[in-house]
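PROTEIN FOLDING TASK:
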Amino acid sequence: MQLRGDWMTAGQFAAKAGVTKRTVQFYDKVGLLNPSHRTSSGHRFYTKQDLARLQRILTLKYIGLTIDEISGIIHRDGYEEDLKESLRVQSTIIGQKMEHLRLVQKTVTETLALLESLEHEEYERLGPAEGFDDNNPAWELFASIIRVVNQEYESAFNLQTRIRMHDTFSVNPYKWHHWLFDQLTIPEHSTILELGCGDGTLWQRNASRIPEGWDVTLTDISEGILNDAKEGLKHWLSPDRLRFSSADARSIPFPDASFDVILANHMLYHVSERHQALKEIRRVLKPGGKLFASTMGNRHMIEVKGFLSKLNPHYDFGRQDFACEFGLENGEDQLAAAGFSDIRLQRFEDALRVTDAKPLLDYIRTTPGGRENFTDSRLTKLEALLNESIHLHGAIHITKEVGLFAAARP
């Protein structure tokens, strides 16, 4: 067989890429980078396409992925065929790692600030001391750092905890997921993308209502929660009814004009660089395609914030103020600024009547503000405060403000 002029030996390929020949041999051995041609005598020859694959491998290795994780990504169907899609997938994964690092840094910084504050208080009270005693509340925050480091993204358990509370105590008997599905005015034969699908509850609860002609792709930034969705939905829908893919809304790994409909259910307020995410959503929507984006209002769960403020007047709601990011009050302006048209808002009327403090406490525990601001001792005090309110009034009334924006790509 005659070798093509653009083929390179292993040595030439390594020199071109700026790596050692041993590195190239190792990736061949573990099945990540097989040469385009191998002679009967065992000599390896590589092409420019192999150079693109090596770039993917080294980028993913640089951000900390294991050999097995890299293998799962680069052997994904269609990943090799489109260089633009390949780069989008890489951008998604890098974005996930950056978000995790920012969360780790925030947790470490907050713990350091608390330690320094406690050191100052201890010095003022007793003078110089050697370290902290075992009862110091700062120790509880070290466990938080460990959890953040080892748990990159929200688990399906946390999501189910919050859904369960709404199911149990909602005043409106018609559940949110059924109402939301009712609003999706989607033709029979349509391509649909959900960004941030979570554990797939929307599709599980409406499994019998999904038209045969829908081509549905579910995505989430977390591989772990996406796997939870895949596992949960296989009991309700045949595997060929849905596709699953890891995706970051700021860098959606699909070609231009791929979908008739995009759904973002209570997720846009989580996205930093939201203008970029909306630009990406517009890009992958077909002309005339629709975006459905649900969110909450400024008064959503406002009574919970009241309880937390009573417990700690200096409580930092931080990332709990989701409506300030993308809410019922400001969502239309953001969608219009991103170039969407025919924007409409439909509100879902509901409230909570909570008669048991524990589910509400569990709910607070799973929220970003609850995880970051409360030690176990504070949560114990909060539980007592909630039980006292239920005893006095029979139930805790909690406001719900949720709704759905529908918008079109012109």
Residues 157 and 395 are 26 Å apart (CA to CA).
